[in-house]
Amino acid sequence: MLRKSISFWVDRGSARAARGWGLGLLVVLSCGVVSSRAEAAWGPPPYAEPHVAPSPPDQTWLKDIPDRPGAPKHKVAVFVIQGDDVYQPVRAAVVRALRRKGLNVTTTLQPVDSAVQYREMSSTLKVAVYVDGEVTGEGAHQSVHLRVRSGVTGQHVAAVNLSGPTPKIVATITRTFWNRVGSATMRACSSAARPHPREREPLRIEAGTSVDDVSIAARESN
């Protein structure tokens, strides 16, 4: 009788334990189903995307293009635009706008100090036109002043004023720069293609030359 009672309570406890394990397993499975449905509804958990550093813009425009057969012999020099951004977007837009018109554009020359020196550089290096300028202000309040200079006279022959943020200025140069300066640029190129007499040699005074002799030499040179 005692053995039967013990066996009864053991079997009853085993049944309760089995029911407990079954209930726990059911809860676990239910949580898994709910979790899968939630993941499907809300999507995968967010994760940090790897940081990719932006690549610099194309700088191949800085390289002079080899002369093509039939291309103009005289060059157009585009100097550094003062105040331009580090990658020179304004200058790049000017260079590309001129090259699209078939001009031989160089970016390797440096500006000089006077009209006489510009004429000398034009005669020596076959430069018909110089372009320079500056950028002032920041952001949407930027102003750009671009100038076109004749190599023959050494004087400015055209100017362009633009304003706004850099992307707007670059887009405007791309669309309208040639319309604003094209006529003056082509006149300067045509003038440079014609032969020009060399400027008068400077008057040299030797040591010991009298003042009267200098005056006579000056009148004769005129």
Mind sketching the topology for me?
Elements: H1 2-42, E1 75-78, H2 89-99, E2 105-106, H3 115-125, E3 127-136, E4 143-150, E5 156-163, H4 166-193, H5 211-221
Parallel strand pairs: 1-2, 1-3
Antiparallel strand pairs: 3-4, 4-5
Helix pairs in contact: 2-4
Summarize the structure in short.
This protein is an alpha/beta fold and 222 residues long. The protein has helices at residues 2-42, 89-99, 115-125, 166-193, 211-221, and strands at 75-78, 105-106, 127-136, 143-150, 156-163.
N-to-C order of helices and strands: HEHEHEEEHH
Task: Give a quick account of the main beta sheet: strands, pairing sense, barrel closure.
Answer: 5 strands, mixed
Helix content: 40-55%
Report, as a whole number of angstroms, the end-to-end distance.
Answer: 150 Å
Question: What would you note in describing this structure?
Answer:
- This protein has 222 residues and is of the alpha/beta class.
- The protein has a domain at 74-193: TolB, N-terminal domain (Rossmann fold), CATH 3.40.50.10070.
- It has five helices and five strands; from the N terminus they run H-E-H-E-H-E-E-E-H-H.
What tags apply to this protein structure?
single chain, 222 residues, alpha/beta, Rossmann fold, 5-stranded mixed β-sheet, 5 helices, 46% helix, disordered C terminus
